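Table S2 (continued). Query chain:
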Amino acid sequence: MTPEQISKNAHVIGVGARLFGGQAYQCLNANECGCLRFLFVVSSLVYFVKTMNCKTYTMKLALIDDNARLRDITKKQLEDSGYTLFFQSENEQEAIQKIEESNTLPDVCIIEENFGAANALLGKFPDLKVLISSTNDDKKSVTDMLEIGVWGYILKYADPDELLTAVEALSKGKKYFSLGVSDIATEYYRNN
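Corresponding output:
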């Protein structure tokens, strides 16, 4: 390796180390080229692994929650996972207005606990893919939501990553239900 190549690779390693919070080792001495190659390979592998896990999604997501603090938590989880919100709103009237103004349905509409919002939105936009996120796991609550046409129902106390799994499923035209309500959903679809 020439001194120029060593310097260039050391810079790349330093950049990689800074990106991932690690320490860069300076191997600018010709006797340490083996060390440099090793660090370069490790740094490149770490960069490759990090970038492979970084997804960006282009689907349009809407988030409806009347609790601004909880809405921000869900928004952060979605954004940290590569999603961008099409819009967020406090209630169904605001959501309906945003959909009408944009003349576009979101790919998935996540509604936190507000069954009235789900009913109003699906009454106005029956093709909307609604995902309910709720703490209610009783048969009546789940069945009521299935009857109005929701595509998914997840429980807030389940695995936090379940929201992401459900969003992905709904965006592909599949229904999704948390394990805690899946028996209710299966029974509902079997009988209807």
